[in-house]
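Researcher: I'd like a candidate sequence for this fold, 142 residues long. If you have to choose between options at a position, lean toward the conservative one.
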C-alpha cells in the first residue's frame, strides 16, 4: 500500500466505535443519610494519646480519607491534618474528625475503632458503604 492510498483519518475512524453504539455510564448518585464518621472511645483515646505524646496540640485534626489501591480497590487513610474549606467536620468523643467532601460518599456512617488486644491491635474500620473488604481490613470496594 502506498502513502497516497493510506489515509490515517479513515483508519482511525474505522477503529473508533460511534457514540450511539457505546452505552453511557453515569456516576452513581449518593444521597447523604447524615450519618457522621464516628470514633469509638478507644479510637478517640488513641488519637488523643498520639497528639499528646508527639506534642501536636493546636490546629491539627484527625483526617479520614480514602485513596485508590489496596487489595479491594480503595484504602483507608488516617492522619493528623489542618482543616480546609472543603472539609466536613464531625466531633466524636472529643476529637474533631475531618473528611473531604469528595471522600465522604465512601466513608459516610463509618466507625473507626482501636482494639488493643492480643488478636487485634491498631485502627480498624467498620464501613457500611463497603460492599467487600480485604482480609486485613484496610482496603474495600463499593
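Model: Candidate sequence:
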Amino acid at each position: 500500500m502506498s502513502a497516497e492510498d493510506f489515509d490515517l483519518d479513515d483508519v482511525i475512524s474505522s477503529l473508533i466505535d460511534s457514540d450511539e453504539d457505546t452505552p453511557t455510564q453515569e456516576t452513581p448518585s449518593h444521597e447523604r443519610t447524615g450519618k457522621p464518621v464516628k470514633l469509638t472511645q478507644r479510637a478517640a483515646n488513641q488519637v488523643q494519646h498520639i497528639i499528646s505524646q508527639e506534642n501536636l496540640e493546636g490546629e491539627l485534626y484527625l483526617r479520614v480519607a480514602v485513596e485508590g489501591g489496596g487489595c479491594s480497590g480503595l484504602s483507608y487513610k488516617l492522619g493528623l491534618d489542618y482543616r480546609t474549606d472543603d472539609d466536613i467536620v464531625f466531633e466524636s468523643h472529643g476529637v474533631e474528625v475531618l473528611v473531604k467532601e469528595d471522600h465522604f460518599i465512601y466513608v459516610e456512617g463509618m466507625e473507626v475503632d482501636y482494639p488493643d488486644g492480643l488478636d487485634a491491635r491498631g485502627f480498624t474500620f467498620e464501613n457500611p458503604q463497603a460492599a467487600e473488604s480485604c482480609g486485613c481490613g484496610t482496603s474495600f470496594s463499593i
